[in-house]
Design brief:
This protein is of the alpha/beta class. Helices cover 33% and strands 23% of the residues. It starts with a strand and ends with a strand. Bound molecules: iron/sulfur cluster. Residues 29, 31-33, 36, 38, 40, 82-84, 110 line the site of iron/sulfur cluster (SF4).
């Protein structure tokens, strides 16, 4: 089994949750967001100067282990991002199985994947960082090129299984796609449904 990985970025602080973390960015995404900065469906693209590469789970663990002391001292660990990491859920599950005791595991996802992919790692992940884009199905479709049925279904499935502390739900203001009022409506829904404070932010358009 191999993971198709776009980049591995070590010693990140205050960007992906608590503590020092290593961001493992996976190649490929089912969405086509207009303002995507990752270009993770572009075959030639690499991120942060790291070449796209195939990793065995053990190879990735060896790399992650270099910073294990920082994970343990700061409450950090691995962040699986992308692209859409849940397209490679089996690989993530295996990496989590091999990960050191006390390493936190976080995932940054759009949740626009089949429930089976979510279920594969639901017992492994400590924190779910979910970008819901916009709750309205028409705006979502216009911005991403896909509908959000799976996103809503997966959100509800996770809510049944996890406590509020496991969620960090991001609600973006997407220039040209949603208004402040529409963002506020999505944020209100998140508050009521998950009992968490949503992370409202602006997409940076480059
Ligand atoms: S979900 Fe993220 S990685 Fe995928 S196209 Fe949208 S912005 Fe890019």
């Amino acid at each position: 089994m191999t993971g198709d990985i776009m980049s591995v970025s070590r010693l990140r602080m205050a960007t992906d949750g608590k503590g020092v973390s290593t961001l493992v960015a996976f190649y490929g995404c089912p969405l086509k967001c207009e303002y995507c900065i990752n270009e993770c469906n572009n075959n030639k693209h690499t991120l942060l100067g790291t070449a796209r590469a195939l990793y065995e789970p053990e190879e990735l663990i060896e790399l992650l282990r270099k910073d294990a002391i920082y994970y343990l001292m700061t409450g950090g660990g691995i962040v699986f991002g992308g692209g859409e990491p849940l397209l490679q859920a089996e690989f993530i599950h295996e990496v989590c199985r091999l990960a050191g005791e006390g390493w936190k595991k976080r995932i940054e996802t759009s949740l626009n994947v089949p429930w089976e992919s979510v279920a594969t790692v639901v017992g492994d992940i400590d924190e779910w960082i979910i970008d819901i884009k916009d709750l309205n199905k028409f705006r979502y479709q216009k911005y991403t090129g896909s509908d959000n049925k799976k996103v809503l279904n997966n959100l509800m499935g996770l809510r049944r299984l996890l406590s509020p502390e496991a969620f960090r739900i991001r609600v973006p203001h997407i220039r040209g796609y949603n208004t402040d009022e529409q963002v506020a409506r999505s944020a209100e829904w998140v508050k009521k449904t998950f009992h968490v404070e949503p992370d409202v932010f602006d997409y940076i358009v480059v």
